[in-house]
Amino acid sequence: MRIGVVTFPGSLDDRDAARAIRLAGADAVALWHGDHDLHGVDAIVLPGGFSYGDYLRAGAIASLSPIMTEVIDAANKGMPVLGICNGFQMLTEAHLLDGGLIRNEQGRFICRDQGLRIENNASDWTNGFEANAEIVIPLKNGEGSFMAPTETLKMLEGEGRIVARYLGNPNGSLNDIAGVTNARGNVVGLMPHPEHAVEAGFGPDTDAAMASGIDGLTFFTSVIARTLVGA
Amino acid sequence: MPTIVVEVMPKAELLDPQGKAVAGALGRLGQTQSALANVTGVRVGKRFEISIDGEADATTLAAVRELADTVLSNSVIEDVVGIHVQDAPSSAVA
């Protein structure tokens, strides 16, 4: 299986995302924002970072990149797409996901290991989790506060499209929302970073050992399992 | 050169942490400058100045309105609060 990672001007976590994909057992394919070519990948990750220096709005300019035409088209046809942090912001700006992200309520950049509950374990990127699994992965952003109009929020809740909720709201996100999915379950946006919790020795601390947390790996193994089943 | 000005503000019902931080600083100034003592809040938005060739006619204004709603603002978190035309890009007030 081939999973593409798009690099935009100002992407930071594209290499980590590619590494997570390889550790999960798939081939990572580098994609470029200025191309109109997905190189035949089976799934796509939009990585974290500060594309275009967060000018205009976080993710807004990247969402208008040449390659986003192909990404949006593929997503609408069912290709799994995961947007992490800045990638999540791009997916809301591209209207592939509902809601929007604003500055954290306390006005500070937050960088810490964050507990989450996986509330939708049916999406292409979360099907490997147990129902209501509680996990810990890093969170690091300045504009991670999830907002949506009341009716949209009600719809997302009603349709079970809240993928992950914070255990302890770090930033003022409505309903403690850390990640959402689209109606089809192939597009997922997540503010915390699963790609930084994929290899023992380099992840969050756990009760068992320092830096041993690899809860993020399941997002990547989930999409591999889903695609193999579908093939 | 005609300039179309588009003004965008964070939605009134959403917290504006940037405005809140500025208001906090003004509050501290207000302790020493009595003229600032009655400042009750600050919100921070954006102003775009779009220079165009030729007339700012109805077609152009409609296109800019569309641009304001779809690109210059995100309707989930922001409102377009003003669009107007002026003769030239802004310069400092005398």
Walk me through the structure.
By secondary structure, chain A is α/β, with parallel strands linked by helices. Chain A has one domain: Rossmann fold (3-Layer(aba) Sandwich). Helix content of chain A is 23%, strand content 25%. Chain A contains five helices and eleven strands, in the order E-H-E-E-H-E-H-E-E-E-E-H-E-E-E-H. In chain A, helix 1 crosses helix 5. Chain A is globular, with a radius of gyration of 16 Å. In chain B, 11% of the residues are buried. Chain B has one domain: 2-Layer Sandwich (Mth169, Chain: A), CATH 3.30.1280. Chain B is α+β, with helices and mostly antiparallel strands and 94 residues long. Chain A: Keywords: ATP-binding, Cytoplasm, Glutamine amidotransferase, Hydrolase, Ligase, Nucleotide-binding, Purine biosynthesis. Chain A: Part of the FGAM synthase complex composed of 1 PurL, 1 PurQ and 2 PurS subunits. Chain A: It is found in: Cytoplasm.
CATH architecture of chain B: 2-Layer Sandwich
Tell me which CATH architecture of chain A applies here.
3-Layer(aba) Sandwich
Overall mean pLDDT of chain A: 97
Q: Domains counted in the coordinates of chain B: how many?
A: 1
Low-confidence stretches of chain A: none
The largest sheet of chain B, given as strand count, sense and whether it forms a barrel, is: 3 strands, antiparallel
Going across the biggest sheet of chain B, name each strand in turn.
2-1-3
Could you tell me the radius of gyration of chain A in angstroms? Answer: 16 Å
What is the spatial order of strands in the main beta sheet of chain A?
A: 2-1-3-4-11-10-9-6-7
Cα distance, first to last residue of chain A? Answer: 10 Å
Instruction: List unreliable stretches of 5+ residues of chain B.
Output: none
Classified in CATH, the superfamily of chain B is Phosphoribosylformylglycinamidine synthase subunit PurS
Please bin the fraction of helical residues of chain B. 25-40%
CATH class descriptor name of chain B? Alpha Beta
Q: What is the level 1 CATH name of chain A? A: Alpha Beta
Per DSSP, the total helix count of chain B is: 2
